[in-house]
Design a protein that fits this description.
The protein has about 400 residues and is of the alpha/beta class. The protein has 13 helices and 22 strands. The relative contact order is 0.09. The structure holds cytidine-5'-triphosphate.
Length: about 400
């Protein structure tokens, strides 16, 4: 799930120090560049024993610098440090962490770190014993106290062949941290508590069978990611899905409608926004068996009696009337005909600020696909009728409109 706008034209400084994890830094540089960032890389002398400047020039399409003894580079990097939106040092060796803690500026990377005024992230990579050493621990703590984001290290196999805590966190997770830090700094929902529901719910008939729907959770997960990118503190209440969950959310997995309702009502108590994207199961079997129903179980016969599940948004509406939270509520209307009219009715019935209407039978829209066709309605009428676009883009538009309504 790529961000379309968050990283676009953001100036990211990537400092690379001498560790075997250097090869992963090239992947991080590539992922950032693909997401639209302008990535400037600084390699220390030790890093160049593992990777070449050419590696980074090739993936970023920008110069990669190594020496502070070239005056032009020196001046350029002090400038880059001042202009950067974010500086990440990955991998960060014990040596560089110690230098940063002490405020040394003996190479281009540490010098630029002193000049930089943007958020600084460091992803340590070293032998487990080196990381556990009180000197390294104290240095890392000094940096944390100064507001540096220390990411990891993770547990696992080291270059030495030993297991321990010293592996650099993988590039996708680093990218997620970068997005979170940037979002909190500049996002339109920075610091706001946002609740997102996604995926289907399931209503059990017996321990092996259930009633559900075709939702995969893609659109709700995209909304959760867009809210993280916008700097929100996101609680994601997620029904069963095989899709990857965005990093940086407070995840609450649920299965049934009742579980989702309980989680939503608890989470919205102090939330600014609710995005109710989940495709909630509308019906459940009126009786559930605690054992697998056998073909020969006469009491069950072949008919399943159904009852209607709790309407979560209607329960939220009652809550809002009493408490005022969530301040803004957005629902989805999955329709197969007369989408606008049914959507408008649901908006009013469920007391929503917005409803995102989609005809789930339209081509390139609805369940399981990566695109959607959504019209956003409010009580004043059509807010935006979006053409077919990626679910990520739809999510970013919805976040934009909701942030505007919050003011
Ligand atoms: N929803 C809910 N609780 C339910 C069912 C749906 O909160 N038990 C929410 C959905 O998450 C969505 C909105 O209500 O945000 C509309 O869902 P939809 O399935 O389109 O409508 P229904 O309320 O089920 O109405 P209908 O059966 O008439 O389509």
């Amino acid at each position: 799930m790529k961000s379309i706008t968050l990283l676009k034209d953001k100036r990211i400084l990537l400092g690379v120090t001498g560790s075997i994890a250097c090869y992963k830094a090239a992947d991080l540089a590539s992922k950032l560049t693909q997401a639209g960032a302008l990535v400037d890389v600084i390699l220390t002398e030790s890093a160049q024993k593992f990777v070449l400047p050419l590696t980074f020039r090739s993936v970023t399409g920008r110069p990669c610098t190594t020496s502070m003894w070239d005056l032009d580079e020196h001046v350029r990097h002090v400038g880059l440090g001042e202009q950067a939106d974010l500086f990440i040092i990955a991998p960060a060796t014990a040596n560089t962490i110690a230098k940063l803690a002490g405020g040394l500026a003996d190479n281009l990377l540490t010098l630029t770190a002193l000049a930089a005024r943007c958020p600084l992230l460091a992803a340590p990579a070293m032998d487990g014993g080196m990381y556990a050493h009180p000197a390294t621990q104290a240095n890392a703590q000094t940096l944390r106290d100064r507001g540096v984001h220390i990411i990891g290290p993770a547990e696992g196999r080291m270059a030495s062949g030993l297991l321990g805590r010293g592996r650099m966190v993988e590039p996708p997770q680093l990218l997620a941290h970068i997005r979170q830090v940037l979002g909190r700094q500049t996002g339109v929902l920075a610091g706001k508590k946002v609740v997102v529901t996604a995926g289907p719910t399931r209503e059990p008939l017996d321990p092996v069978r259930f009633i559900s729907n075709r939702s995969t959770g893609k659109q709700g997960l995209a909304v959760a990611q867009a809210a993280v990118d916008a700097g929100a503190d996101v609680t994601l209440i997620l029904g069963p899905t095989a899709e990857p969950v965005p990093l940086g959310v407070n995840l609450m997995p649920v299965t049934t409608t009742q579980e989702m309702a309980d989680a939503v009502l608890a989470a919205v108590q102090d939330a600014e926004v609710l995005f109710m994207v989940a495709a909630v199961a509308d019906f459940r079997p009126d009786t559930q068996s605690d054992h697998k129903i056998k073909k020969t179980d006469e009491q069950w016969g072949l008919a399943i009696g159904l009852e209607v599940t709790l309407d979560i948004l209607s329960a939220v509406k009652d809550r809002r009337e009493k408490t005022g939270f969530p301040r803004v509520a957005l629902g989805f209307a999955a329709e197969t005909k007369d989408a606008f009219e049914y959507g408008r009715q649901k908006l009013l019935r469920k007391g929503l600020n917005f409803i995102a209407v989609n005809d789930v039978t339209a081509e390139g829209a609805g369940f399981g696909v990566d695109t959607n066709r959504v019209a956003l309605l409010s009580s004043a009428g059509v807010v935006e009728n979006m053409p077919r676009m990626s679910k990520t883009a739809v999510a970013e538009r919805l976040v934009h409109h909701v942030a505007k309504a919050l003011g």
